[in-house]
Amino acid sequence: MPENISTSNEITFASLNLAQPLMRAIADAGYTTPTPVQAQAIPLVLAGGDLLAGAQTGTGKTAGFTLPILHLLSAKPAANPRPGRPRCLILVPTRELAAQVEESVQTYGKYLPLKSMVMFGGVNINPQMKSLRGQVDILVATPGRLLDHVGQKTLDLSAVEILVLDEADRMLDMGFIRDIKKILALLPKQRQNLLFSATFSDEIKTLSDGLLHNPGYVEVARRNSTVELISQSVHLVPQRLKSHLLSHLIKHHDWKQVLVFTRTKHGANRLTEKLIADGIPAAAIHGNKSQPARTKALAQFKDGTMPVLVATDIAARGLDIDQLPHVVNFELPNVPEDYVHRIGRTGRAGSSGAAISLVDKEESQFLRDIERLIKREIPVVEIDSFVPPTNLPVEAPRPPRQGHGQRRNNGPRTSATGNRQQPSREGQARNSQGQKHSPGNPQQRDQRPRNPQQREQQPRNGQPSAKPRPPQKTAEQQHLSEAARHQAMPQPALFSPKPGVRPGIRKAR
Ligand code: AMP
Protein backbone atom coordinates (compact mmCIF):
# COMPACT_ATOMS: atom_id res chain seq x y z
CA MET A 1 0.00 0.00 0.00
CA PRO A 2 1.55 3.32 -1.00
CA GLU A 3 2.07 6.03 1.57
CA ASN A 4 0.88 9.04 -0.42
CA ILE A 5 -2.02 10.75 1.21
CA SER A 6 -4.24 13.26 -0.49
CA THR A 7 -7.41 15.09 0.38
CA SER A 8 -10.45 15.88 -1.68
CA ASN A 9 -10.14 19.68 -1.34
CA GLU A 10 -10.10 20.36 -5.05
CA ILE A 11 -12.73 17.74 -5.98
CA THR A 12 -16.34 18.85 -6.31
CA PHE A 13 -19.46 16.79 -6.98
CA ALA A 14 -19.69 18.55 -10.36
CA SER A 15 -16.26 17.22 -11.33
CA LEU A 16 -17.37 13.63 -10.68
CA ASN A 17 -19.65 13.61 -13.74
CA LEU A 18 -22.64 12.06 -12.01
CA ALA A 19 -25.99 12.12 -13.81
CA GLN A 20 -28.20 15.17 -13.28
CA PRO A 21 -30.91 13.33 -11.26
CA LEU A 22 -28.17 12.30 -8.83
CA MET A 23 -26.80 15.84 -8.62
CA ARG A 24 -30.28 17.07 -7.73
CA ALA A 25 -30.62 14.46 -4.99
CA ILE A 26 -27.17 15.36 -3.65
CA ALA A 27 -28.18 19.02 -3.54
CA ASP A 28 -31.44 18.07 -1.76
CA ALA A 29 -29.41 16.15 0.83
CA GLY A 30 -27.45 19.35 1.47
CA TYR A 31 -24.05 17.92 0.56
CA THR A 32 -21.69 20.52 -0.88
CA THR A 33 -18.42 18.61 -1.20
CA PRO A 34 -17.66 14.92 -1.59
CA THR A 35 -16.09 13.32 1.46
CA PRO A 36 -12.60 11.85 0.86
CA VAL A 37 -13.89 8.31 0.32
CA GLN A 38 -16.49 9.59 -2.15
CA ALA A 39 -13.96 11.70 -4.05
CA GLN A 40 -11.75 8.66 -4.53
CA ALA A 41 -14.21 5.81 -4.82
CA ILE A 42 -16.79 7.36 -7.16
CA PRO A 43 -14.46 7.74 -10.19
CA LEU A 44 -13.09 4.22 -9.66
CA VAL A 45 -16.57 2.67 -9.53
CA LEU A 46 -17.78 4.72 -12.50
CA ALA A 47 -14.81 3.39 -14.47
CA GLY A 48 -16.25 -0.10 -13.97
CA GLY A 49 -13.40 -1.68 -12.02
CA ASP A 50 -13.38 -3.61 -8.76
CA LEU A 51 -12.69 -1.68 -5.59
CA LEU A 52 -11.19 -2.40 -2.20
CA ALA A 53 -12.04 0.40 0.21
CA GLY A 54 -10.87 0.82 3.77
CA ALA A 55 -13.47 3.11 5.25
CA GLN A 56 -15.35 3.13 8.48
CA THR A 57 -18.95 4.00 8.90
CA GLY A 58 -19.21 7.77 9.29
CA THR A 59 -16.95 8.59 6.36
CA GLY A 60 -19.75 8.88 3.80
CA LYS A 61 -18.85 5.49 2.31
CA THR A 62 -22.49 4.58 1.58
CA ALA A 63 -22.87 7.42 -0.90
CA GLY A 64 -19.37 6.50 -2.10
CA PHE A 65 -20.73 3.30 -3.62
CA THR A 66 -24.45 4.11 -3.95
CA LEU A 67 -24.05 7.18 -6.17
CA PRO A 68 -21.88 5.59 -8.86
CA ILE A 69 -23.96 2.39 -8.80
CA LEU A 70 -27.13 4.38 -9.42
CA HIS A 71 -25.33 6.23 -12.19
CA LEU A 72 -24.12 3.04 -13.89
CA LEU A 73 -27.45 1.24 -13.64
CA SER A 74 -29.43 4.19 -14.96
CA ALA A 75 -27.00 4.75 -17.83
CA LYS A 76 -27.44 1.20 -19.08
CA PRO A 77 -30.93 -0.37 -19.15
CA ALA A 78 -31.30 -3.94 -17.91
CA ALA A 79 -30.53 -6.52 -20.62
CA ASN A 80 -33.37 -8.84 -19.68
CA PRO A 81 -35.55 -7.27 -16.98
CA ARG A 82 -37.62 -9.71 -14.96
CA PRO A 83 -39.29 -9.52 -11.51
CA GLY A 84 -37.16 -10.53 -8.51
CA ARG A 85 -33.94 -10.32 -10.52
CA PRO A 86 -31.73 -7.57 -9.09
CA ARG A 87 -28.87 -5.99 -11.03
CA CYS A 88 -27.01 -4.91 -7.93
CA LEU A 89 -26.64 -6.81 -4.66
CA ILE A 90 -25.44 -5.02 -1.53
CA LEU A 91 -24.66 -7.43 1.31
CA VAL A 92 -24.44 -6.02 4.83
CA PRO A 93 -23.99 -7.64 8.25
CA THR A 94 -26.93 -6.26 10.23
CA ARG A 95 -30.58 -5.45 9.80
CA GLU A 96 -30.16 -1.85 10.88
CA LEU A 97 -27.37 -1.29 8.39
CA ALA A 98 -29.45 -2.91 5.67
CA ALA A 99 -32.31 -0.53 6.37
CA GLN A 100 -29.97 2.46 6.41
CA VAL A 101 -28.21 1.59 3.19
CA GLU A 102 -31.49 1.05 1.38
CA GLU A 103 -32.72 4.37 2.70
CA SER A 104 -29.61 5.97 1.17
CA VAL A 105 -30.31 4.23 -2.13
CA GLN A 106 -33.79 5.73 -2.08
CA THR A 107 -32.53 9.16 -1.05
CA TYR A 108 -29.92 9.40 -3.81
CA GLY A 109 -32.02 7.59 -6.40
CA LYS A 110 -35.24 9.47 -5.86
CA TYR A 111 -35.18 11.13 -9.29
CA LEU A 112 -34.34 7.88 -11.09
CA PRO A 113 -36.76 5.15 -12.18
CA LEU A 114 -34.68 2.45 -10.44
CA LYS A 115 -36.30 0.31 -7.75
CA SER A 116 -34.64 -0.88 -4.57
CA MET A 117 -35.57 -3.31 -1.87
CA VAL A 118 -34.28 -4.25 1.59
CA MET A 119 -34.28 -7.81 2.88
CA PHE A 120 -33.38 -9.04 6.37
CA GLY A 121 -34.44 -11.66 8.88
CA GLY A 122 -36.46 -11.31 12.07
CA VAL A 123 -39.49 -10.04 10.18
CA ASN A 124 -42.27 -11.69 8.20
CA ILE A 125 -40.92 -13.01 4.89
CA ASN A 126 -44.22 -12.56 2.99
CA PRO A 127 -43.99 -8.81 2.27
CA GLN A 128 -40.47 -9.43 0.92
CA MET A 129 -41.80 -12.18 -1.35
CA LYS A 130 -44.45 -9.81 -2.58
CA SER A 131 -41.85 -7.14 -3.40
CA LEU A 132 -39.82 -9.72 -5.29
CA ARG A 133 -42.74 -10.23 -7.63
CA GLY A 134 -42.06 -6.73 -8.96
CA GLN A 135 -39.06 -4.88 -10.39
CA VAL A 136 -36.01 -4.85 -8.11
CA ASP A 137 -32.87 -3.21 -9.46
CA ILE A 138 -30.92 -2.85 -6.22
CA LEU A 139 -31.23 -5.35 -3.41
CA VAL A 140 -29.80 -4.61 0.03
CA ALA A 141 -29.72 -7.76 2.14
CA THR A 142 -28.30 -9.59 5.10
CA PRO A 143 -26.90 -12.97 4.05
CA GLY A 144 -29.19 -15.33 6.02
CA ARG A 145 -32.53 -14.05 4.78
CA LEU A 146 -31.17 -13.72 1.28
CA LEU A 147 -30.35 -17.43 1.27
CA ASP A 148 -33.84 -18.21 2.60
CA HIS A 149 -35.27 -16.50 -0.47
CA VAL A 150 -32.87 -18.31 -2.75
CA GLY A 151 -34.00 -21.59 -1.13
CA GLN A 152 -37.62 -20.69 -1.75
CA LYS A 153 -36.81 -19.71 -5.33
CA THR A 154 -38.29 -16.27 -4.85
CA LEU A 155 -35.04 -14.56 -5.77
CA ASP A 156 -32.92 -14.88 -8.89
CA LEU A 157 -29.31 -13.70 -8.59
CA SER A 158 -28.28 -14.58 -12.12
CA ALA A 159 -28.44 -10.99 -13.38
CA VAL A 160 -26.29 -9.32 -10.71
CA GLU A 161 -23.91 -6.91 -12.44
CA ILE A 162 -22.52 -5.24 -9.30
CA LEU A 163 -21.83 -6.82 -5.90
CA VAL A 164 -21.06 -4.77 -2.79
CA LEU A 165 -19.82 -6.31 0.44
CA ASP A 166 -20.32 -3.55 3.00
CA GLU A 167 -18.64 -3.80 6.41
CA ALA A 168 -17.06 -7.02 5.21
CA ASP A 169 -14.91 -7.29 8.33
CA ARG A 170 -17.96 -7.38 10.54
CA MET A 171 -19.63 -9.92 8.28
CA LEU A 172 -16.66 -12.20 8.80
CA ASP A 173 -16.66 -11.48 12.56
CA MET A 174 -20.27 -12.52 12.64
CA GLY A 175 -19.50 -15.81 10.99
CA PHE A 176 -21.08 -15.08 7.61
CA ILE A 177 -18.20 -16.39 5.51
CA ARG A 178 -19.99 -19.63 4.53
CA ASP A 179 -23.13 -17.75 3.57
CA ILE A 180 -21.07 -15.29 1.55
CA LYS A 181 -19.38 -18.13 -0.31
CA LYS A 182 -22.74 -19.71 -1.08
CA ILE A 183 -24.04 -16.40 -2.38
CA LEU A 184 -20.94 -15.77 -4.51
CA ALA A 185 -21.48 -19.14 -6.17
CA LEU A 186 -24.94 -17.98 -7.30
CA LEU A 187 -23.72 -14.81 -9.01
CA PRO A 188 -22.64 -14.46 -12.63
CA LYS A 189 -18.86 -14.69 -13.05
CA GLN A 190 -18.70 -11.44 -14.98
CA ARG A 191 -19.50 -8.62 -12.56
CA GLN A 192 -18.10 -5.61 -10.73
CA ASN A 193 -17.14 -6.19 -7.08
CA LEU A 194 -16.81 -3.56 -4.37
CA LEU A 195 -15.55 -4.49 -0.92
CA PHE A 196 -15.76 -2.07 2.00
CA SER A 197 -14.14 -2.87 5.30
CA ALA A 198 -13.08 -0.82 8.31
CA THR A 199 -10.12 -3.10 8.98
CA PHE A 200 -7.87 -5.33 6.90
CA SER A 201 -7.32 -8.60 8.67
CA ASP A 202 -5.78 -11.65 7.02
CA GLU A 203 -9.31 -13.00 6.53
CA ILE A 204 -10.33 -9.88 4.64
CA LYS A 205 -7.22 -10.13 2.55
CA THR A 206 -8.03 -13.73 1.66
CA LEU A 207 -11.59 -12.80 0.81
CA SER A 208 -10.58 -9.83 -1.33
CA ASP A 209 -7.84 -11.80 -3.10
CA GLY A 210 -10.42 -14.38 -4.16
CA LEU A 211 -13.11 -11.87 -5.03
CA LEU A 212 -11.55 -8.80 -6.56
CA HIS A 213 -9.80 -8.53 -9.91
CA ASN A 214 -7.14 -5.88 -10.17
CA PRO A 215 -8.99 -3.63 -7.73
CA GLY A 216 -8.65 0.09 -7.25
CA TYR A 217 -7.76 0.87 -3.68
CA VAL A 218 -8.97 3.60 -1.38
CA GLU A 219 -8.36 4.03 2.30
CA VAL A 220 -9.58 6.82 4.54
CA ALA A 221 -8.95 7.28 8.25
CA ARG A 222 -6.42 4.57 8.79
CA ARG A 223 -7.32 1.39 10.47
CA ASN A 224 -7.81 1.68 14.20
CA SER A 225 -7.33 5.41 14.21
CA THR A 226 -10.06 7.31 15.98
CA VAL A 227 -12.18 9.76 14.10
CA GLU A 228 -10.65 13.22 14.22
CA LEU A 229 -13.45 15.22 15.71
CA ILE A 230 -14.31 12.94 18.60
CA SER A 231 -13.28 14.18 22.02
CA GLN A 232 -12.67 11.24 24.27
CA SER A 233 -12.67 11.14 28.04
CA VAL A 234 -12.71 8.65 30.88
CA HIS A 235 -14.56 8.90 34.19
CA LEU A 236 -13.16 6.57 36.82
CA VAL A 237 -16.08 5.15 38.74
CA PRO A 238 -16.87 1.90 40.54
CA GLN A 239 -19.16 -0.37 38.57
CA ARG A 240 -22.01 -0.11 41.07
CA LEU A 241 -22.08 3.68 40.78
CA LYS A 242 -22.02 3.81 37.01
CA SER A 243 -25.76 3.92 36.44
CA HIS A 244 -26.09 6.67 39.03
CA LEU A 245 -23.32 8.67 37.41
CA LEU A 246 -24.83 8.18 33.97
CA SER A 247 -28.23 9.45 35.13
CA HIS A 248 -26.46 12.40 36.69
CA LEU A 249 -24.50 13.23 33.55
CA ILE A 250 -27.57 13.02 31.32
CA LYS A 251 -29.63 15.24 33.61
CA HIS A 252 -26.86 17.65 34.60
CA HIS A 253 -25.75 18.33 31.03
CA ASP A 254 -29.24 17.94 29.59
CA TRP A 255 -27.98 15.50 26.99
CA LYS A 256 -30.58 15.09 24.29
CA GLN A 257 -29.20 12.13 22.39
CA VAL A 258 -26.83 9.60 23.87
CA LEU A 259 -25.95 6.12 22.68
CA VAL A 260 -24.82 3.93 25.58
CA PHE A 261 -22.93 0.68 25.08
CA THR A 262 -23.19 -2.13 27.56
CA ARG A 263 -21.34 -5.40 27.56
CA THR A 264 -24.35 -7.70 27.77
CA LYS A 265 -27.99 -7.74 26.72
CA HIS A 266 -28.99 -8.28 30.33
CA GLY A 267 -26.91 -5.28 31.36
CA ALA A 268 -28.57 -3.19 28.66
CA ASN A 269 -32.01 -4.11 30.00
CA ARG A 270 -31.03 -3.39 33.60
CA LEU A 271 -29.54 -0.02 32.76
CA THR A 272 -32.56 0.95 30.68
CA GLU A 273 -34.87 0.15 33.58
CA LYS A 274 -32.73 2.20 35.94
CA LEU A 275 -32.70 5.21 33.61
CA ILE A 276 -36.46 5.04 33.15
CA ALA A 277 -36.86 4.82 36.94
CA ASP A 278 -34.75 7.97 37.16
CA GLY A 279 -37.16 9.73 34.80
CA ILE A 280 -34.96 9.47 31.70
CA PRO A 281 -36.75 7.97 28.68
CA ALA A 282 -34.54 5.14 27.37
CA ALA A 283 -34.82 2.03 25.23
CA ALA A 284 -32.58 -0.99 24.81
CA ILE A 285 -31.56 -2.46 21.47
CA HIS A 286 -29.95 -5.88 21.29
CA GLY A 287 -30.24 -9.30 19.76
CA ASN A 288 -32.99 -10.51 22.12
CA LYS A 289 -35.32 -7.69 21.14
CA SER A 290 -37.80 -8.31 18.36
CA GLN A 291 -37.08 -6.59 15.09
CA PRO A 292 -40.16 -4.30 15.38
CA ALA A 293 -38.98 -3.26 18.89
CA ARG A 294 -35.48 -2.57 17.54
CA THR A 295 -36.83 -0.58 14.62
CA LYS A 296 -39.15 1.45 16.85
CA ALA A 297 -36.42 2.21 19.42
CA LEU A 298 -34.02 3.30 16.69
CA ALA A 299 -36.64 5.48 14.98
CA GLN A 300 -37.52 7.20 18.26
CA PHE A 301 -33.88 7.72 19.06
CA LYS A 302 -33.19 9.16 15.63
CA ASP A 303 -36.14 11.55 15.66
CA GLY A 304 -35.18 12.80 19.12
CA THR A 305 -38.19 11.51 21.07
CA MET A 306 -36.07 8.94 22.93
CA PRO A 307 -32.93 10.60 24.32
CA VAL A 308 -31.11 7.43 25.37
CA LEU A 309 -30.50 4.25 23.41
CA VAL A 310 -28.74 1.46 25.28
CA ALA A 311 -27.12 -1.00 22.91
CA THR A 312 -24.79 -3.94 22.72
CA ASP A 313 -21.97 -3.88 20.16
CA ILE A 314 -23.64 -6.14 17.72
CA ALA A 315 -26.95 -4.27 17.63
CA ALA A 316 -25.28 -0.91 17.26
CA ARG A 317 -22.95 -1.91 14.48
CA GLY A 318 -23.28 0.40 11.51
CA LEU A 319 -25.87 2.65 13.09
CA ASP A 320 -25.82 5.95 11.29
CA ILE A 321 -27.38 8.68 13.34
CA ASP A 322 -26.77 12.16 12.07
CA GLN A 323 -24.53 14.24 14.30
CA LEU A 324 -24.80 11.94 17.28
CA PRO A 325 -23.38 14.12 20.06
CA HIS A 326 -22.65 11.57 22.81
CA VAL A 327 -21.51 7.99 22.98
CA VAL A 328 -21.04 6.44 26.41
CA ASN A 329 -19.14 3.26 27.09
CA PHE A 330 -20.94 2.01 30.17
CA GLU A 331 -18.36 -0.75 30.18
CA LEU A 332 -15.22 -0.83 28.11
CA PRO A 333 -15.12 -3.53 25.46
CA ASN A 334 -12.48 -6.20 26.03
CA VAL A 335 -11.72 -6.20 22.31
CA PRO A 336 -10.01 -2.84 21.77
CA GLU A 337 -11.13 -2.58 18.14
CA ASP A 338 -14.74 -2.52 19.34
CA TYR A 339 -13.98 0.75 21.13
CA VAL A 340 -13.07 2.33 17.80
CA HIS A 341 -16.24 1.00 16.20
CA ARG A 342 -18.33 2.24 19.09
CA ILE A 343 -17.02 5.77 19.21
CA GLY A 344 -17.26 5.92 15.42
CA ARG A 345 -20.98 6.48 15.98
CA THR A 346 -20.21 10.04 16.97
CA GLY A 347 -18.24 12.78 15.23
CA ARG A 348 -19.59 11.56 11.92
CA ALA A 349 -19.08 13.26 8.54
CA GLY A 350 -17.63 16.46 9.93
CA SER A 351 -19.70 16.96 13.08
CA SER A 352 -18.01 16.90 16.48
CA GLY A 353 -18.92 14.44 19.19
CA ALA A 354 -17.93 13.22 22.61
CA ALA A 355 -17.12 9.66 23.62
CA ILE A 356 -17.24 9.13 27.36
CA SER A 357 -16.12 5.94 29.05
CA LEU A 358 -17.13 4.93 32.56
CA VAL A 359 -14.24 2.86 33.83
CA ASP A 360 -14.12 0.70 36.92
CA LYS A 361 -10.73 -0.25 38.38
CA GLU A 362 -11.20 -3.75 37.03
CA GLU A 363 -11.27 -2.33 33.52
CA SER A 364 -7.96 -0.49 33.66
CA GLN A 365 -6.23 -3.11 31.54
CA PHE A 366 -8.91 -2.77 28.87
CA LEU A 367 -8.28 0.97 28.91
CA ARG A 368 -4.55 0.45 28.48
CA ASP A 369 -5.16 -1.90 25.57
CA ILE A 370 -7.45 0.62 23.89
CA GLU A 371 -4.95 3.43 24.34
CA ARG A 372 -2.22 1.29 22.87
CA LEU A 373 -4.41 0.58 19.86
CA ILE A 374 -5.42 4.20 19.24
CA LYS A 375 -1.95 5.41 20.14
CA ARG A 376 -3.09 8.12 22.49
CA GLU A 377 -3.95 8.57 26.11
CA ILE A 378 -7.58 9.27 26.89
CA PRO A 379 -7.84 12.07 29.47
CA VAL A 380 -9.28 11.13 32.85
CA VAL A 381 -11.90 13.66 33.81
CA GLU A 382 -13.29 14.15 37.30
CA ILE A 383 -16.81 15.25 38.14
CA ASP A 384 -17.43 17.31 41.27
CA SER A 385 -21.11 17.77 40.79
CA PHE A 386 -21.87 14.06 41.22
CA VAL A 387 -22.91 13.06 44.73
CA PRO A 388 -23.22 9.30 44.91
CA PRO A 389 -26.26 7.88 46.71
CA THR A 390 -25.53 6.90 50.30
CA ASN A 391 -27.87 3.96 50.89
CA LEU A 392 -26.79 1.64 48.18
CA PRO A 393 -27.56 -2.03 48.76
CA VAL A 394 -24.55 -4.24 49.36
CA GLU A 395 -23.27 -5.43 46.02
CA ALA A 396 -23.65 -9.12 45.22
CA PRO A 397 -20.40 -10.95 44.54
CA ARG A 398 -19.34 -10.38 40.96
CA PRO A 399 -16.99 -12.52 38.92
CA PRO A 400 -13.86 -10.62 38.02
CA ARG A 401 -13.81 -9.37 34.45
CA GLN A 402 -11.29 -11.00 32.27
CA GLY A 403 -10.68 -10.85 28.65
CA HIS A 404 -7.77 -10.58 26.35
CA GLY A 405 -6.53 -8.05 28.87
CA GLN A 406 -6.69 -10.52 31.75
CA ARG A 407 -5.79 -8.82 34.99
CA ARG A 408 -2.12 -8.99 35.55
CA ASN A 409 -0.16 -8.02 38.61
CA ASN A 410 0.66 -4.58 37.32
CA GLY A 411 -2.23 -2.90 39.13
CA PRO A 412 -4.48 -0.07 38.05
CA ARG A 413 -2.67 2.91 36.67
CA THR A 414 -5.00 5.44 38.18
CA SER A 415 -5.10 6.59 41.74
CA ALA A 416 -8.29 6.99 43.72
CA THR A 417 -8.20 10.69 42.93
CA GLY A 418 -8.16 9.98 39.25
CA ASN A 419 -4.51 10.90 38.75
CA ARG A 420 -2.70 8.85 36.24
CA GLN A 421 0.18 6.67 37.17
CA GLN A 422 2.78 5.82 34.64
CA PRO A 423 1.58 2.84 32.66
CA SER A 424 3.97 -0.06 32.94
CA ARG A 425 5.89 -0.79 29.78
CA GLU A 426 4.11 -3.49 27.93
CA GLY A 427 7.21 -5.50 27.18
CA GLN A 428 7.95 -5.75 30.88
CA ALA A 429 4.47 -6.54 32.12
CA ARG A 430 4.06 -10.01 33.52
CA ASN A 431 1.07 -11.96 34.62
CA SER A 432 0.63 -13.63 37.94
CA GLN A 433 2.53 -16.69 36.74
CA GLY A 434 5.44 -14.44 35.96
CA GLN A 435 4.98 -14.92 32.22
CA LYS A 436 5.70 -12.06 29.95
CA HIS A 437 2.60 -10.50 28.52
CA SER A 438 2.53 -9.60 24.94
CA PRO A 439 -0.56 -7.98 23.43
CA GLY A 440 -0.08 -10.07 20.36
CA ASN A 441 0.07 -13.36 22.20
CA PRO A 442 -3.11 -15.17 21.24
CA GLN A 443 -2.83 -17.44 24.27
CA GLN A 444 -3.42 -14.45 26.47
CA ARG A 445 -6.21 -13.09 24.37
CA ASP A 446 -9.88 -13.29 25.13
CA GLN A 447 -10.86 -16.91 25.26
CA ARG A 448 -14.48 -16.05 24.42
CA PRO A 449 -15.61 -16.48 20.83
CA ARG A 450 -14.68 -13.81 18.29
CA ASN A 451 -18.21 -13.97 16.97
CA PRO A 452 -19.92 -10.97 18.61
CA GLN A 453 -23.30 -12.68 18.52
CA GLN A 454 -21.91 -15.47 20.62
CA ARG A 455 -19.90 -13.05 22.72
CA GLU A 456 -23.05 -11.20 23.64
CA GLN A 457 -24.52 -14.36 25.03
CA GLN A 458 -21.53 -15.44 27.05
CA PRO A 459 -20.22 -14.07 30.31
CA ARG A 460 -16.70 -12.75 30.30
CA ASN A 461 -15.35 -15.66 32.23
CA GLY A 462 -16.68 -18.95 33.29
CA GLN A 463 -15.33 -18.91 36.84
CA PRO A 464 -17.31 -17.12 39.49
CA SER A 465 -15.20 -15.25 41.97
CA ALA A 466 -14.56 -17.08 45.21
CA LYS A 467 -14.55 -13.85 47.19
CA PRO A 468 -17.10 -11.06 47.16
CA ARG A 469 -15.68 -7.73 46.08
CA PRO A 470 -14.86 -5.56 49.10
CA PRO A 471 -17.15 -2.55 49.49
CA GLN A 472 -15.84 0.58 47.75
CA LYS A 473 -14.72 3.47 49.85
CA THR A 474 -16.63 6.71 49.95
CA ALA A 475 -13.56 8.64 48.85
CA GLU A 476 -13.57 6.57 45.71
CA GLN A 477 -17.10 7.63 45.03
CA GLN A 478 -16.19 11.26 45.23
CA HIS A 479 -13.15 11.48 43.07
CA LEU A 480 -14.87 13.08 40.14
CA SER A 481 -14.30 16.80 40.03
CA GLU A 482 -16.18 19.07 37.65
CA ALA A 483 -13.40 21.68 37.58
CA ALA A 484 -10.90 19.12 36.44
CA ARG A 485 -13.34 18.00 33.82
CA HIS A 486 -13.21 21.37 32.17
CA GLN A 487 -9.47 21.68 32.51
CA ALA A 488 -8.90 18.28 31.11
CA MET A 489 -11.43 18.69 28.31
CA PRO A 490 -9.87 16.51 25.67
CA GLN A 491 -8.52 17.94 22.48
CA PRO A 492 -9.91 16.59 19.23
CA ALA A 493 -8.16 13.35 18.49
CA LEU A 494 -5.86 14.38 15.68
CA PHE A 495 -4.21 11.04 15.55
CA SER A 496 -1.99 10.72 12.62
CA PRO A 497 -0.34 7.47 11.69
CA LYS A 498 3.03 9.12 11.38
CA PRO A 499 4.30 12.45 12.66
CA GLY A 500 3.72 15.11 10.02
CA VAL A 501 1.36 12.97 8.00
CA ARG A 502 -2.25 14.08 7.80
CA PRO A 503 -4.88 11.41 8.01
CA GLY A 504 -6.73 11.24 4.76
CA ILE A 505 -6.98 9.18 1.67
CA ARG A 506 -4.31 6.76 0.76
CA LYS A 507 -4.63 5.76 -2.80
CA ALA A 508 -2.77 2.88 -4.30
CA ARG A 509 -3.75 2.69 -7.88
P1 AMP B 1 -21.85 6.65 6.08
O1 AMP B 1 -20.41 6.62 6.40
O2 AMP B 1 -22.12 6.25 4.70
O3 AMP B 1 -22.66 5.91 7.11
O4 AMP B 1 -22.35 8.20 6.14
C1 AMP B 1 -22.28 8.96 7.29
C2 AMP B 1 -23.13 10.21 7.21
O5 AMP B 1 -22.52 11.18 6.34
C3 AMP B 1 -24.54 10.03 6.68
O6 AMP B 1 -25.43 10.60 7.60
C4 AMP B 1 -24.59 10.80 5.38
O7 AMP B 1 -25.84 11.40 5.19
C5 AMP B 1 -23.51 11.83 5.58
N1 AMP B 1 -22.85 12.24 4.31
C6 AMP B 1 -22.52 11.43 3.29
N2 AMP B 1 -21.91 12.12 2.31
C7 AMP B 1 -21.83 13.41 2.72
C8 AMP B 1 -21.31 14.61 2.14
N3 AMP B 1 -20.70 14.61 0.96
N4 AMP B 1 -21.41 15.74 2.85
C9 AMP B 1 -22.01 15.74 4.06
N5 AMP B 1 -22.53 14.64 4.67
C10 AMP B 1 -22.44 13.48 4.01
Task: Give the SSE layout.
Layout lengths: L4 E2 L13 H10 L6 H11 L4 E4 L6 H15 L12 E4 L3 H14 L7 E4 L6 H6 L6 E4 L1 H9 L10 E4 L2 H6 L3 H9 L6 E6 L4 H10 L4 E4 L10 E7 L5 H11 L5 E4 L3 H13 L4 E4 L5 H12 L5 E4 L1 H4 L9 E4 L6 H8 L9 E7 L4 H11 L77 H6 L16 H4 L4 H6 L17 E3 L2
Parallel strand pairs: 2-7, 2-8, 3-5, 3-6, 4-5, 6-7, 9-14, 10-12, 10-13, 11-12, 13-14
Antiparallel strand pairs: 1-15, 8-15
Helix pairs in contact: 2-3, 3-4, 6-8, 14-15
Bound molecules: adenosine monophosphate (AMP).
Molecular structure report:
Helices cover 32% and strands 13% of the residues. It has 509 residues and is an alpha/beta fold. The protein has a nine-stranded mixed beta sheet, sandwiched between helices. It has a six-stranded parallel beta sheet with strand order 9-14-13-10-12-11, sandwiched between helices. Strand 13, helix 14 and strand 14 form a beta-alpha-beta unit. Helix 2 packs parallel to helix 3, helix 3 packs across helix 4 and helix 6 packs across helix 8 (177-185). The N and C termini lie close together (9 Å). Bound molecules: adenosine monophosphate.
